[in-house]
Amino acid sequence: MPAPRSTRRTPPEAGEPFAVTECASGLGLRLERDGVPWCWLLPEGPPAARGPALPAVPTGQGAVAGPSWDSGRYAVEQWTDARVVVALGGRRLRGRHVLARLPDGGWRVRALDGPAEGAPLVPMLATPGELPPAAQDQAWGYEFKWDGVRAVAVVEGGQLALWARSGTDITVRYPELSRLPSALVGHDAVVDGEVVALDARGRPDFGALQGRMHRTGPEVRRMAAATPVTYLVFDLLAEDGESLLELPYAQRRERLDALGVAGERWVPTPWFRGGGPAVLAASRDNRLEGVVAKRLDSPYRPGLRGPDWRKVKNVRTQAVVVGGWRPGQGRRAGGVGSLLVGVHDDAGRLVYAGHVGTGFTAAALEELQPLFTPAGRPPFADALPREVTRDAHWVVPELVGEVAFAAWTADGRMRHPSWRGLRDDLVPEDVVEEW
C-alpha cells in the first residue's frame, strides 16, 4: 500500500480523525492523514488486546463504507511505506497499534499497549449518597476522596504497569511512579489507588494534573521532573500471586498497612473505622472533595457500583460528554465560547445537561477545538431550546470532561457549571448522572 514517506510524532490532543465501520467482510479502518483517507479491511476485526497480529487488507484511499463501529482521534508515532504506528483514542478502540507490511506483501495489525490478557480488573466503584446512619457507623470504614485519576497498579518482577478505569495503559504518562517503594522490591502485587498532583499545601490539584493526563511523548520526562505526581494507594487486591478480592475491606486494608508501600512517589492513604461525620468534617476543613464510606465486611467487586461503597461529596462534580459548542464573543470571538454537554439516562440515551461557559483557561480552550470531530446533527436524544441550537456547532460525542456545579434543576440541567478539564480516563458510555 503506498503511503507518505514521513515520520511524525504528534501529541494525541492534536491528532486527526479515524473511523471503524462495519461491512460484510469484517470491519474497515479509516485513518485520515492530512486530509487524505488511508483504509484497511480488518476481516477478523481489530485486536483489542496485546497478542497475535491479525490480518489487515489495504484498500488504498478507498473508504470501507458501512455503519459506524467506532470513531475518534489518533496520533501518529511513525508512518512509512511498510509500518504505521498510531495511538487510537476511540470509544471502543484505544491505545497504540501498529500496521505492518510482511515480506510476502500482506499486512497485519497488532495492539501494542491496549488492555492485555491478564490485565488488571476494572476498579470497584462507589455509589453517590449520604453517610451511613449513626446506628451503622461502626460497620463502616472511611477514607478521604481524592481529586485525581483512578489507577490500578500491577507490580510484577520489579516492573510497574498502571491502568486507568477505562482500561487504558497509562504507565508511560507517569514515569516517576515506576520507582517502586522498597517494600515491593522482590514482590508482586496489585493495588488500587489514585494518581494526584499535590499543591504546596499537600492538597490534590486537579487543574495541575490536567497538564499530565494526556501526555505520552518525549515531554513526559521533563514534566515528571518539574511537576511530579503522587500515587495514593487505598486497597490491596493481590499479593505475591494470592488474590485478596474475597477478603473483607478491613482485612485488605490491614494487609496493605502491613505491607508498607510508602516510599518514592507512593503514599498509602489513611482510613478510619467508624466516625464518619468527623471524617467528613475533616475533609471539608482541608478542602478535600469528600469521603468514601466502605463497609468493613465488603469484598472487592471489580466493576461493580453497589451499595457497599458510598461517596459523599463536599463539592458537586459531574463527568459530562461534549456534544457541541457555541462560538465565543469578545476576546473569545472566533473560538469556543461554551460547551454543550450531556449525560446518559437510564435507557442509555445521551441527554442534554446544560452548557458550560466558565472555568476555562486560555490553554484549555486552545486544546479543545482541535479535538472536535464535527457532526451534522445534535447527538442529544431530547429536544433542545432554540436559544441553544441557533448557533451551535455539533460534534461527535467522544470527549469526556468534568464540571463543578451548584445543583440539578427540575428539568435536568446543571446550575452554574464550571469546566474542570478533560477526563480521558473515562469512556463516554460510562457517563451517567451522579447526583
Taking strands numbered 1, 2, ... along the chain, how are they ordered across the largest sheet?
Answer: 1-2-3-4-8-7-6-5
Question: What is the overall silhouette?
Answer: globular
Largest sheet: 8 strands, antiparallel, barrel
- Backbone CA Rg: 23 Å
Helical content band: 10-25%
Q: So what's the CATH class of the largest domain?
A: Alpha Beta
Mean pLDDT across all residues, rounded? 86
Predict the CATH topology of the largest domain: D-amino Acid Aminotransferase, Chain A, domain 1
Distance between the ends: 51 Å
What does this structure look like?
It is an enzyme of class 6 (ligase). GO terms for molecular function: ATP binding; DNA ligase (ATP) activity. Keywords: Ligase. One of its GO terms (biological process) is DNA recombination. This is DNA ligase (ATP). This protein has 435 residues and is mainly beta. It has 3 domains: 12-111, no CATH class; 125-133 and 145-269 and 296-313, D-amino Acid Aminotransferase, Chain A, domain 1; 317-430, Nucleic acid-binding proteins (OB fold (Dihydrolipoamide Acetyltransferase, E2P), Beta Barrel). The chain contains 6 helices and 26 strands. The strands form 5 sheets. The chain has an 8-stranded antiparallel barrel. A hairpin with a 2-residue loop joins β11 (149-156) and β12. The longest helix is centred in the middle third of the chain and has 11 residues, at 249-259. Mean pLDDT is 86; it is low at 1-14.
Task: Summarize, please.
The chain is mostly beta strands. It has helices spanning 206-213, 219-226, 249-259, 276-285, 362-368, 386-389, and strands at 16-23, 26-33, 36-42, 54-58, 68-79, 83-90, 94-101, 107-111, 125-128, 140-145, 149-156, 159-164, 189-196, 230-239, 242-243, 266-268, 272-273, 290-295, 305-313, 317-327, 336-344, 350-356, 393-404, 407-408, 414-415, 418-422.
